[in-house]
Amino acid sequence: MEIYKGTATFPGIAIGRLLIYQRAEYQIRQYLISNVKKELDDFSSARIRVKEQLEALYEQYKGVQESEARTFLNQSKLLNPGSFQRAVESIITSEKVNASYAIMTTRDELTSTFRNLEDPLIRERINNIREISNRLIEVLGGDSVKIDLGKEPVIVAAESILPTEMMEMGKEKLLAIVTYQGSSDSHTAIMAKTMGIPVLVDIEPGEDWDGAQAIVDGYTGTLYVHPDAELKKEYEIRQKEDLKEQEELFALRDEKDETLDGRQVKLYANTGSLDDLNNVLFYGAEGIGLLRSEFQYLGRENYPRENELFLAYKKIAETMGDRPVVIRTADLGADKKADYMDIPDEVNPIMGNRGIRLCLDRRKMFKAQLRAIYRASAYGNLAVMYPMLSSEEELDEIEEIICDVKEGLKQKGIPFKDIMTGIMIETPAAVMISRELASRVDFLSLGTNDLTQYTLAMDRQNPLLRNKYNDHHPAIMRMVQMVVEEGHKENCKVCICGELAADTALTETFLRMGVDALSVVPACILPVRKAIRNVDLS
Ligand code: PEP
Ligand code: MG
Questions:
Q1: 22-54 residue pLDDT tens
Q2: Ligand 1 first shell, C-beta below 6 A
Q3: How would you classify the pairing of strands 222-225 and 2-5?
Q4: Is 492 among the catalytic positions?
Q5: Residues 359, 492, 497, 524: which is the catalytic one?
Q6: Within the chain, how many helices (H) and strands (E) appear?
Q7: Cβ(305)–Cβ(364) under 8 Å?
Q8: Choosing from 187, 492, 495, 524, which is the catalytic residue?
Q9: Rounded to two decimals, what is the model's pTM?
Q10: C-alpha separations of 208 from 18, 20, 26, 519 in Å
Q11: Is 497 one of the annotated active-site residues of the chain?
Protein backbone atom coordinates (compact mmCIF):
# COMPACT_ATOMS: atom_id res chain seq x y z
CA MET A 1 0.00 0.00 0.00
CA GLU A 2 1.24 3.50 -0.84
CA ILE A 3 0.10 6.57 1.12
CA TYR A 4 0.23 10.12 -0.26
CA LYS A 5 -0.63 13.27 1.63
CA GLY A 6 -2.12 16.23 -0.21
CA THR A 7 -4.56 19.03 0.48
CA ALA A 8 -8.26 18.29 0.53
CA THR A 9 -10.36 20.97 -1.15
CA PHE A 10 -13.70 19.20 -0.84
CA PRO A 11 -14.58 16.47 1.66
CA GLY A 12 -15.93 13.02 0.94
CA ILE A 13 -14.67 9.47 0.48
CA ALA A 14 -14.14 7.71 -2.83
CA ILE A 15 -13.08 4.12 -3.43
CA GLY A 16 -12.32 2.91 -6.93
CA ARG A 17 -9.92 2.47 -9.77
CA LEU A 18 -7.41 5.18 -10.65
CA LEU A 19 -7.26 6.54 -14.16
CA ILE A 20 -4.31 8.67 -15.16
CA TYR A 21 -5.50 11.44 -17.38
CA GLN A 22 -3.01 13.07 -19.71
CA ARG A 23 -4.01 15.92 -21.90
CA ALA A 24 -3.46 14.77 -25.46
CA GLU A 25 -0.30 16.59 -26.45
CA TYR A 26 0.41 15.21 -29.89
CA GLN A 27 3.90 15.00 -31.31
CA ILE A 28 3.47 15.06 -35.07
CA ARG A 29 6.01 13.97 -37.65
CA GLN A 30 6.89 16.57 -40.23
CA TYR A 31 6.55 15.69 -43.89
CA LEU A 32 6.84 17.77 -47.01
CA ILE A 33 3.73 18.29 -49.07
CA SER A 34 3.34 19.03 -52.75
CA ASN A 35 -0.19 20.44 -52.69
CA VAL A 36 -0.17 23.52 -50.42
CA LYS A 37 -3.71 24.50 -51.37
CA LYS A 38 -5.09 21.13 -50.27
CA GLU A 39 -3.29 21.39 -46.91
CA LEU A 40 -4.66 24.92 -46.38
CA ASP A 41 -8.16 23.69 -47.28
CA ASP A 42 -7.86 20.76 -44.84
CA PHE A 43 -6.78 23.17 -42.11
CA SER A 44 -9.70 25.44 -42.91
CA SER A 45 -12.23 22.56 -42.75
CA ALA A 46 -10.72 21.36 -39.46
CA ARG A 47 -11.07 24.86 -38.02
CA ILE A 48 -14.73 24.95 -38.98
CA ARG A 49 -15.34 21.50 -37.50
CA VAL A 50 -13.61 22.21 -34.21
CA LYS A 51 -15.42 25.55 -33.97
CA GLU A 52 -18.74 23.73 -34.37
CA GLN A 53 -17.76 21.20 -31.70
CA LEU A 54 -16.79 23.93 -29.24
CA GLU A 55 -19.97 25.88 -29.87
CA ALA A 56 -22.00 22.72 -29.34
CA LEU A 57 -20.16 22.09 -26.06
CA TYR A 58 -20.94 25.66 -24.97
CA GLU A 59 -24.63 25.17 -25.75
CA GLN A 60 -24.64 21.87 -23.87
CA TYR A 61 -23.07 23.23 -20.70
CA LYS A 62 -24.02 26.90 -20.53
CA GLY A 63 -27.11 26.15 -18.46
CA VAL A 64 -25.04 24.15 -15.97
CA GLN A 65 -21.90 26.25 -15.55
CA GLU A 66 -22.19 29.43 -17.59
CA SER A 67 -18.86 31.00 -16.65
CA GLU A 68 -16.87 27.78 -17.17
CA ALA A 69 -18.74 26.92 -20.36
CA ARG A 70 -17.73 30.30 -21.72
CA THR A 71 -14.19 28.91 -22.03
CA PHE A 72 -15.48 26.82 -24.96
CA LEU A 73 -16.66 30.02 -26.60
CA ASN A 74 -13.34 31.76 -25.95
CA GLN A 75 -11.59 28.78 -27.52
CA SER A 76 -13.86 28.86 -30.54
CA LYS A 77 -13.08 32.57 -30.99
CA LEU A 78 -9.38 31.72 -31.28
CA LEU A 79 -10.31 29.77 -34.40
CA ASN A 80 -11.68 32.86 -36.15
CA PRO A 81 -9.41 34.38 -38.78
CA GLY A 82 -6.61 35.92 -36.73
CA SER A 83 -3.05 35.51 -35.48
CA PHE A 84 -3.26 31.76 -34.71
CA GLN A 85 -4.67 30.92 -38.12
CA ARG A 86 -2.12 33.18 -39.88
CA ALA A 87 0.79 31.61 -37.99
CA VAL A 88 -0.26 28.08 -38.97
CA GLU A 89 -0.96 29.02 -42.60
CA SER A 90 2.35 30.81 -42.89
CA ILE A 91 4.25 27.67 -41.77
CA ILE A 92 2.30 25.47 -44.21
CA THR A 93 2.96 27.87 -47.09
CA SER A 94 6.56 28.85 -46.43
CA GLU A 95 7.88 25.48 -45.20
CA LYS A 96 5.55 23.34 -47.35
CA VAL A 97 4.78 21.03 -44.43
CA ASN A 98 1.69 19.12 -43.28
CA ALA A 99 -1.02 21.11 -41.44
CA SER A 100 -0.82 19.03 -38.23
CA TYR A 101 2.88 19.69 -37.95
CA ALA A 102 2.32 23.44 -38.54
CA ILE A 103 -0.32 23.47 -35.78
CA MET A 104 1.95 21.63 -33.36
CA THR A 105 4.83 23.99 -34.08
CA THR A 106 2.62 27.04 -33.50
CA ARG A 107 1.27 25.52 -30.27
CA ASP A 108 4.75 24.70 -28.94
CA GLU A 109 6.23 28.07 -29.88
CA LEU A 110 3.46 29.99 -28.17
CA THR A 111 3.55 27.76 -25.11
CA SER A 112 7.28 28.00 -24.61
CA THR A 113 7.36 31.78 -25.22
CA PHE A 114 4.77 32.43 -22.53
CA ARG A 115 5.49 29.47 -20.23
CA ASN A 116 6.98 31.54 -17.41
CA LEU A 117 4.44 34.33 -17.38
CA GLU A 118 2.28 34.33 -14.27
CA ASP A 119 -0.51 36.52 -15.63
CA PRO A 120 -3.64 34.36 -15.27
CA LEU A 121 -5.15 35.76 -18.48
CA ILE A 122 -2.10 34.79 -20.52
CA ARG A 123 -2.03 31.36 -18.89
CA GLU A 124 -5.67 30.88 -19.76
CA ARG A 125 -5.04 31.90 -23.35
CA ILE A 126 -2.14 29.48 -23.62
CA ASN A 127 -4.27 26.67 -22.23
CA ASN A 128 -6.94 27.54 -24.77
CA ILE A 129 -4.44 27.49 -27.62
CA ARG A 130 -3.21 24.09 -26.44
CA GLU A 131 -6.73 22.74 -26.36
CA ILE A 132 -7.73 24.00 -29.79
CA SER A 133 -4.44 22.79 -31.29
CA ASN A 134 -4.96 19.30 -29.95
CA ARG A 135 -8.53 19.22 -31.16
CA LEU A 136 -7.44 20.39 -34.63
CA ILE A 137 -4.73 17.74 -34.80
CA GLU A 138 -7.23 15.07 -33.78
CA VAL A 139 -9.72 16.18 -36.39
CA LEU A 140 -7.05 16.24 -39.08
CA GLY A 141 -6.02 12.74 -38.04
CA GLY A 142 -9.62 11.59 -38.06
CA ASP A 143 -9.67 10.77 -34.32
CA SER A 144 -12.52 11.30 -31.92
CA VAL A 145 -12.10 14.32 -29.64
CA LYS A 146 -14.27 13.22 -26.76
CA ILE A 147 -12.58 12.45 -23.46
CA ASP A 148 -13.59 8.90 -22.65
CA LEU A 149 -13.08 7.66 -19.12
CA GLY A 150 -14.48 4.22 -19.86
CA LYS A 151 -17.64 2.56 -18.56
CA GLU A 152 -17.09 2.53 -14.80
CA PRO A 153 -16.71 5.67 -12.69
CA VAL A 154 -13.07 6.33 -11.77
CA ILE A 155 -10.76 8.41 -9.59
CA VAL A 156 -9.02 10.65 -12.09
CA ALA A 157 -5.41 11.57 -11.34
CA ALA A 158 -3.66 14.21 -13.42
CA GLU A 159 -0.99 16.85 -13.38
CA SER A 160 -3.82 19.36 -13.76
CA ILE A 161 -7.38 19.35 -15.06
CA LEU A 162 -9.09 22.18 -16.85
CA PRO A 163 -12.71 23.00 -15.98
CA THR A 164 -13.67 22.28 -19.59
CA GLU A 165 -12.07 18.85 -19.38
CA MET A 166 -14.03 18.16 -16.21
CA MET A 167 -17.25 19.06 -17.97
CA GLU A 168 -16.46 16.64 -20.76
CA MET A 169 -15.62 13.88 -18.30
CA GLY A 170 -19.02 14.32 -16.69
CA LYS A 171 -20.08 14.07 -13.06
CA GLU A 172 -21.38 10.49 -13.34
CA LYS A 173 -17.96 9.16 -14.35
CA LEU A 174 -15.98 10.94 -11.64
CA LEU A 175 -15.57 9.44 -8.17
CA ALA A 176 -12.86 11.89 -7.16
CA ILE A 177 -10.08 14.01 -8.57
CA VAL A 178 -6.43 14.02 -7.58
CA THR A 179 -4.16 16.63 -9.11
CA TYR A 180 -0.68 17.99 -8.60
CA GLN A 181 -1.54 21.56 -9.51
CA GLY A 182 -4.49 23.59 -8.31
CA SER A 183 -5.83 25.14 -5.15
CA SER A 184 -9.08 25.19 -3.24
CA ASP A 185 -10.19 28.35 -4.98
CA SER A 186 -9.24 27.34 -8.51
CA HIS A 187 -12.10 27.11 -10.98
CA THR A 188 -11.69 23.36 -11.25
CA ALA A 189 -11.93 22.91 -7.47
CA ILE A 190 -14.98 25.17 -7.27
CA MET A 191 -16.62 23.18 -10.05
CA ALA A 192 -15.85 19.93 -8.27
CA LYS A 193 -17.38 21.35 -5.08
CA THR A 194 -20.49 22.25 -7.01
CA MET A 195 -20.61 18.69 -8.37
CA GLY A 196 -19.98 17.35 -4.86
CA ILE A 197 -16.84 15.44 -5.88
CA PRO A 198 -13.93 15.05 -3.42
CA VAL A 199 -10.74 16.70 -4.64
CA LEU A 200 -7.14 16.38 -3.48
CA VAL A 201 -4.42 18.68 -4.76
CA ASP A 202 -0.64 18.71 -4.28
CA ILE A 203 -0.25 15.02 -5.14
CA GLU A 204 1.89 14.10 -8.13
CA PRO A 205 0.41 11.15 -10.06
CA GLY A 206 2.67 8.06 -10.15
CA GLU A 207 3.51 6.58 -13.53
CA ASP A 208 2.29 3.10 -12.62
CA TRP A 209 -1.01 4.11 -11.06
CA ASP A 210 -3.23 3.59 -14.05
CA GLY A 211 -5.84 0.97 -13.19
CA ALA A 212 -4.73 0.63 -9.54
CA GLN A 213 -7.28 0.42 -6.74
CA ALA A 214 -7.29 3.53 -4.56
CA ILE A 215 -9.05 5.35 -1.73
CA VAL A 216 -9.45 9.12 -1.59
CA ASP A 217 -10.03 10.54 1.87
CA GLY A 218 -11.28 14.05 1.23
CA TYR A 219 -11.39 14.79 4.96
CA THR A 220 -7.71 14.28 5.71
CA GLY A 221 -6.33 14.89 2.21
CA THR A 222 -4.95 11.34 1.94
CA LEU A 223 -4.68 9.08 -1.09
CA TYR A 224 -4.13 5.35 -0.59
CA VAL A 225 -2.94 3.44 -3.65
CA HIS A 226 -3.25 -0.38 -3.54
CA PRO A 227 -4.95 -0.21 -0.12
CA ASP A 228 -4.84 -3.39 1.91
CA ALA A 229 -8.06 -5.31 2.41
CA GLU A 230 -8.52 -4.22 6.00
CA LEU A 231 -8.23 -0.52 5.22
CA LYS A 232 -10.57 -0.90 2.27
CA LYS A 233 -13.17 -2.52 4.49
CA GLU A 234 -12.78 0.28 7.05
CA TYR A 235 -13.29 2.92 4.38
CA GLU A 236 -16.28 1.10 2.92
CA ILE A 237 -17.92 1.37 6.34
CA ARG A 238 -16.94 5.03 6.63
CA GLN A 239 -18.28 5.71 3.16
CA LYS A 240 -21.62 4.21 4.13
CA GLU A 241 -21.69 6.36 7.27
CA ASP A 242 -20.78 9.35 5.17
CA LEU A 243 -23.70 8.70 2.85
CA LYS A 244 -26.00 8.23 5.84
CA GLU A 245 -24.82 11.55 7.23
CA GLN A 246 -25.44 13.20 3.87
CA GLU A 247 -28.95 11.78 3.84
CA GLU A 248 -29.54 13.06 7.36
CA LEU A 249 -28.33 16.45 6.26
CA PHE A 250 -30.60 16.38 3.21
CA ALA A 251 -33.52 15.81 5.52
CA LEU A 252 -32.80 19.30 6.88
CA ARG A 253 -33.39 20.95 3.53
CA ASP A 254 -36.82 22.25 4.44
CA GLU A 255 -36.19 22.73 8.15
CA LYS A 256 -36.03 26.08 9.91
CA ASP A 257 -32.83 27.78 10.92
CA GLU A 258 -33.70 28.00 14.57
CA THR A 259 -31.74 27.27 17.75
CA LEU A 260 -33.01 24.78 20.34
CA ASP A 261 -34.35 27.68 22.41
CA GLY A 262 -36.21 29.11 19.43
CA ARG A 263 -34.00 31.92 18.14
CA GLN A 264 -34.43 32.43 14.39
CA VAL A 265 -31.28 32.89 12.35
CA LYS A 266 -31.13 33.71 8.66
CA LEU A 267 -29.02 31.28 6.65
CA TYR A 268 -28.17 32.49 3.17
CA ALA A 269 -25.97 31.29 0.31
CA ASN A 270 -22.94 32.91 -1.30
CA THR A 271 -22.89 32.63 -5.06
CA GLY A 272 -20.34 33.49 -7.68
CA SER A 273 -22.37 32.97 -10.81
CA LEU A 274 -25.79 32.33 -12.22
CA ASP A 275 -25.03 28.60 -12.38
CA ASP A 276 -25.06 28.32 -8.61
CA LEU A 277 -28.76 29.21 -8.42
CA ASN A 278 -29.80 25.57 -8.69
CA ASN A 279 -27.57 24.69 -5.75
CA VAL A 280 -28.90 27.58 -3.69
CA LEU A 281 -32.41 26.18 -4.08
CA PHE A 282 -31.32 22.56 -3.86
CA TYR A 283 -29.72 23.02 -0.43
CA GLY A 284 -32.65 25.07 0.84
CA ALA A 285 -30.99 28.45 1.48
CA GLU A 286 -33.30 31.23 2.68
CA GLY A 287 -31.88 33.55 0.09
CA ILE A 288 -28.59 34.82 -1.32
CA GLY A 289 -26.55 36.77 1.19
CA LEU A 290 -23.68 37.52 -1.17
CA LEU A 291 -23.84 37.55 -4.93
CA ARG A 292 -20.28 38.19 -6.08
CA SER A 293 -21.39 40.19 -9.11
CA GLU A 294 -17.88 40.63 -10.52
CA PHE A 295 -18.17 37.24 -12.25
CA GLN A 296 -19.97 38.96 -15.10
CA TYR A 297 -17.04 41.30 -15.68
CA LEU A 298 -14.32 38.66 -15.86
CA GLY A 299 -13.19 36.28 -18.64
CA ARG A 300 -14.45 38.54 -21.42
CA GLU A 301 -13.28 41.26 -23.74
CA ASN A 302 -15.28 44.31 -22.71
CA TYR A 303 -17.56 45.67 -19.97
CA PRO A 304 -20.98 44.03 -19.76
CA ARG A 305 -23.68 46.43 -20.89
CA GLU A 306 -26.39 47.65 -18.55
CA ASN A 307 -29.00 45.52 -20.27
CA GLU A 308 -26.95 42.33 -20.00
CA LEU A 309 -26.55 42.96 -16.26
CA PHE A 310 -30.23 43.80 -15.92
CA LEU A 311 -31.30 40.55 -17.60
CA ALA A 312 -29.03 38.50 -15.35
CA TYR A 313 -30.26 40.21 -12.15
CA LYS A 314 -33.87 39.95 -13.33
CA LYS A 315 -33.42 36.21 -13.84
CA ILE A 316 -31.96 35.83 -10.34
CA ALA A 317 -34.70 37.98 -8.80
CA GLU A 318 -37.43 35.99 -10.54
CA THR A 319 -35.88 32.61 -9.74
CA MET A 320 -35.52 33.47 -6.06
CA GLY A 321 -39.01 35.02 -5.80
CA ASP A 322 -39.63 36.35 -2.27
CA ARG A 323 -36.29 35.17 -0.98
CA PRO A 324 -33.83 38.04 -0.54
CA VAL A 325 -30.88 38.40 -2.91
CA VAL A 326 -28.03 40.68 -1.87
CA ILE A 327 -26.08 41.85 -4.91
CA ARG A 328 -22.63 43.04 -3.99
CA THR A 329 -21.53 45.64 -6.51
CA ALA A 330 -18.51 44.61 -8.57
CA ASP A 331 -15.52 43.94 -6.33
CA LEU A 332 -12.91 44.37 -9.06
CA GLY A 333 -9.22 45.19 -8.93
CA ALA A 334 -6.38 43.36 -7.14
CA ASP A 335 -6.70 39.70 -8.22
CA LYS A 336 -9.97 40.25 -10.09
CA LYS A 337 -9.33 42.10 -13.29
CA ALA A 338 -9.57 41.69 -17.04
CA ASP A 339 -7.39 43.16 -19.81
CA TYR A 340 -10.06 45.47 -21.14
CA MET A 341 -10.33 47.26 -17.79
CA ASP A 342 -6.85 48.61 -18.28
CA ILE A 343 -6.11 48.70 -14.56
CA PRO A 344 -2.59 50.06 -14.09
CA ASP A 345 -0.11 47.84 -12.23
CA GLU A 346 0.15 48.68 -8.56
CA VAL A 347 2.96 48.02 -6.10
CA ASN A 348 0.50 46.58 -3.60
CA PRO A 349 -2.77 45.79 -5.40
CA ILE A 350 -4.45 44.20 -2.35
CA MET A 351 -4.16 47.61 -0.68
CA GLY A 352 -4.85 49.35 -3.94
CA ASN A 353 -7.59 50.68 -6.13
CA ARG A 354 -10.10 47.88 -5.64
CA GLY A 355 -13.74 47.31 -4.68
CA ILE A 356 -15.76 50.45 -4.13
CA ARG A 357 -12.72 52.66 -4.74
CA LEU A 358 -12.42 51.43 -8.31
CA CYS A 359 -16.19 51.76 -8.86
CA LEU A 360 -16.17 55.35 -7.64
CA ASP A 361 -13.28 56.03 -10.01
CA ARG A 362 -15.19 54.50 -12.93
CA ARG A 363 -18.57 56.12 -12.52
CA LYS A 364 -19.92 55.05 -15.88
CA MET A 365 -19.35 51.39 -15.10
CA PHE A 366 -20.71 51.76 -11.56
CA LYS A 367 -23.79 53.68 -12.63
CA ALA A 368 -24.59 51.10 -15.30
CA GLN A 369 -24.49 48.37 -12.67
CA LEU A 370 -26.63 50.32 -10.19
CA ARG A 371 -29.21 51.11 -12.87
CA ALA A 372 -29.33 47.40 -13.78
CA ILE A 373 -29.83 46.45 -10.11
CA TYR A 374 -32.58 49.01 -9.55
CA ARG A 375 -34.34 48.06 -12.79
CA ALA A 376 -34.26 44.38 -11.78
CA SER A 377 -35.51 45.24 -8.28
CA ALA A 378 -39.05 45.39 -9.65
CA TYR A 379 -38.96 41.62 -10.28
CA GLY A 380 -38.12 40.20 -6.85
CA ASN A 381 -36.56 40.91 -3.46
CA LEU A 382 -33.19 42.46 -4.23
CA ALA A 383 -30.80 44.38 -1.98
CA VAL A 384 -27.51 46.04 -2.82
CA MET A 385 -24.26 46.12 -0.85
CA TYR A 386 -20.88 47.77 -1.30
CA PRO A 387 -17.48 46.08 -0.88
CA MET A 388 -14.25 47.37 0.68
CA LEU A 389 -15.69 50.56 2.10
CA SER A 390 -13.47 52.45 4.53
CA SER A 391 -15.01 55.90 5.01
CA GLU A 392 -18.29 57.79 5.26
CA GLU A 393 -17.19 60.01 2.39
CA GLU A 394 -17.37 56.98 0.10
CA LEU A 395 -20.92 56.43 1.27
CA ASP A 396 -21.73 60.11 0.54
CA GLU A 397 -20.58 59.57 -3.04
CA ILE A 398 -22.53 56.33 -3.41
CA GLU A 399 -25.72 57.95 -2.10
CA GLU A 400 -25.34 60.79 -4.59
CA ILE A 401 -25.05 58.32 -7.48
CA ILE A 402 -28.02 56.27 -6.22
CA CYS A 403 -30.13 59.46 -6.10
CA ASP A 404 -29.16 60.14 -9.68
CA VAL A 405 -29.96 56.61 -10.78
CA LYS A 406 -33.40 56.66 -9.15
CA GLU A 407 -34.19 60.08 -10.57
CA GLY A 408 -33.24 58.90 -14.05
CA LEU A 409 -35.45 55.81 -13.77
CA LYS A 410 -38.37 57.88 -12.44
CA GLN A 411 -38.12 60.32 -15.31
CA LYS A 412 -38.27 57.48 -17.82
CA GLY A 413 -41.14 55.79 -16.00
CA ILE A 414 -39.07 52.63 -15.40
CA PRO A 415 -40.38 50.75 -12.34
CA PHE A 416 -38.08 50.02 -9.39
CA LYS A 417 -38.27 49.36 -5.65
CA ASP A 418 -36.63 51.28 -2.84
CA ILE A 419 -34.41 48.33 -1.99
CA MET A 420 -32.41 47.71 1.18
CA THR A 421 -28.80 48.79 1.16
CA GLY A 422 -25.87 47.33 3.05
CA ILE A 423 -22.15 47.67 3.54
CA MET A 424 -19.49 44.99 3.70
CA ILE A 425 -17.31 45.34 6.76
CA GLU A 426 -13.97 44.23 5.40
CA THR A 427 -11.55 46.86 6.62
CA PRO A 428 -10.59 47.64 10.22
CA ALA A 429 -11.61 51.26 9.46
CA ALA A 430 -15.15 50.13 8.64
CA VAL A 431 -15.26 48.22 11.94
CA MET A 432 -14.28 51.32 13.88
CA ILE A 433 -16.95 53.48 12.23
CA SER A 434 -19.56 50.72 12.07
CA ARG A 435 -22.03 52.69 14.19
CA GLU A 436 -21.96 55.66 11.80
CA LEU A 437 -22.23 53.35 8.80
CA ALA A 438 -25.06 51.38 10.42
CA SER A 439 -27.05 54.56 10.94
CA ARG A 440 -27.12 55.08 7.18
CA VAL A 441 -27.94 51.61 5.82
CA ASP A 442 -30.22 48.61 6.52
CA PHE A 443 -27.58 45.95 7.13
CA LEU A 444 -23.88 45.29 7.59
CA SER A 445 -22.15 42.16 6.31
CA LEU A 446 -18.82 41.06 7.71
CA GLY A 447 -16.42 39.99 4.96
CA THR A 448 -14.13 38.10 7.29
CA ASN A 449 -11.82 36.95 4.49
CA ASP A 450 -10.56 40.42 3.75
CA LEU A 451 -11.09 41.68 7.28
CA THR A 452 -8.74 38.97 8.56
CA GLN A 453 -6.00 39.74 6.06
CA TYR A 454 -6.18 43.49 6.70
CA THR A 455 -6.35 43.10 10.48
CA LEU A 456 -3.49 40.61 10.71
CA ALA A 457 -1.62 42.38 7.88
CA MET A 458 -1.19 38.97 6.23
CA ASP A 459 -1.92 38.27 2.57
CA ARG A 460 -4.70 35.68 2.51
CA GLN A 461 -3.16 33.98 -0.53
CA ASN A 462 0.43 33.77 0.67
CA PRO A 463 1.28 30.06 1.15
CA LEU A 464 4.22 30.97 3.41
CA LEU A 465 1.79 32.37 5.95
CA ARG A 466 -0.58 29.39 5.85
CA ASN A 467 0.36 28.26 9.37
CA LYS A 468 0.33 31.74 10.83
CA TYR A 469 -2.90 32.94 9.26
CA ASN A 470 -5.28 32.58 12.19
CA ASP A 471 -8.82 33.54 11.27
CA HIS A 472 -9.97 32.69 14.82
CA HIS A 473 -7.64 35.40 16.16
CA PRO A 474 -9.15 37.18 19.20
CA ALA A 475 -8.86 40.47 17.30
CA ILE A 476 -11.26 39.15 14.65
CA MET A 477 -13.68 37.79 17.24
CA ARG A 478 -13.74 41.14 19.05
CA MET A 479 -14.30 42.95 15.78
CA VAL A 480 -17.30 40.76 14.99
CA GLN A 481 -18.69 41.43 18.46
CA MET A 482 -18.14 45.17 18.09
CA VAL A 483 -19.84 45.35 14.70
CA VAL A 484 -22.86 43.41 16.01
CA GLU A 485 -23.20 45.76 19.00
CA GLU A 486 -22.71 48.94 17.02
CA GLY A 487 -25.03 47.73 14.25
CA HIS A 488 -27.79 46.79 16.66
CA LYS A 489 -27.68 50.21 18.36
CA GLU A 490 -28.86 51.55 15.02
CA ASN A 491 -31.39 48.76 14.37
CA CYS A 492 -29.19 47.44 11.64
CA LYS A 493 -29.01 43.69 10.94
CA VAL A 494 -25.56 42.11 10.96
CA CYS A 495 -24.57 39.19 8.74
CA ILE A 496 -21.29 37.32 8.22
CA CYS A 497 -20.58 36.39 4.60
CA GLY A 498 -16.86 35.56 4.74
CA GLU A 499 -15.73 31.91 4.84
CA LEU A 500 -15.77 32.03 8.65
CA ALA A 501 -19.57 31.93 8.52
CA ALA A 502 -19.32 28.28 7.40
CA ASP A 503 -17.00 27.31 10.24
CA THR A 504 -19.31 25.25 12.44
CA ALA A 505 -16.82 25.44 15.32
CA LEU A 506 -17.81 29.11 15.57
CA THR A 507 -21.56 28.89 14.94
CA GLU A 508 -22.45 29.03 18.64
CA THR A 509 -19.96 31.84 19.31
CA PHE A 510 -21.46 33.96 16.52
CA LEU A 511 -25.02 33.33 17.64
CA ARG A 512 -24.13 34.25 21.24
CA MET A 513 -22.62 37.46 19.90
CA GLY A 514 -25.99 38.24 18.33
CA VAL A 515 -25.15 37.76 14.65
CA ASP A 516 -28.45 37.86 12.73
CA ALA A 517 -27.50 36.00 9.56
CA LEU A 518 -24.82 33.75 8.08
CA SER A 519 -24.09 33.43 4.39
CA VAL A 520 -22.08 30.40 3.19
CA VAL A 521 -21.31 28.46 0.00
CA PRO A 522 -24.33 26.33 -1.00
CA ALA A 523 -22.62 23.03 -0.10
CA CYS A 524 -22.19 24.28 3.50
CA ILE A 525 -25.82 25.31 4.05
CA LEU A 526 -26.90 22.00 5.56
CA PRO A 527 -23.91 21.45 7.91
CA VAL A 528 -24.37 25.02 9.23
CA ARG A 529 -28.14 24.50 9.54
CA LYS A 530 -27.43 21.40 11.60
CA ALA A 531 -25.04 23.37 13.83
CA ILE A 532 -27.57 26.18 14.34
CA ARG A 533 -30.27 23.69 15.29
CA ASN A 534 -27.96 22.14 17.91
CA VAL A 535 -27.20 25.41 19.69
CA ASP A 536 -28.98 26.24 22.94
CA LEU A 537 -28.62 29.90 23.84
CA SER A 538 -30.79 29.77 26.94
C1 PEP B 1 -14.72 38.61 2.27
O2 PEP B 1 -13.74 39.33 2.05
O3 PEP B 1 -14.92 37.99 3.34
C4 PEP B 1 -15.73 38.41 1.21
C5 PEP B 1 -16.84 37.76 1.44
O6 PEP B 1 -15.43 38.89 -0.02
P7 PEP B 1 -14.44 38.16 -1.07
O8 PEP B 1 -14.07 36.83 -0.46
O9 PEP B 1 -15.19 38.05 -2.33
O10 PEP B 1 -13.30 39.11 -1.12
MG1 MG C 1 -13.77 40.64 0.33
A1: 876 666 778 888 899 999 999 999 999 999 988
A2: 290, 292, 331, 426, 447-450, 497-498
A3: antiparallel
A4: no
A5: 497
A6: 19, 16
A7: no
A8: 187
A9: 0.70
A10: 10, 9, 21, 44
A11: yes
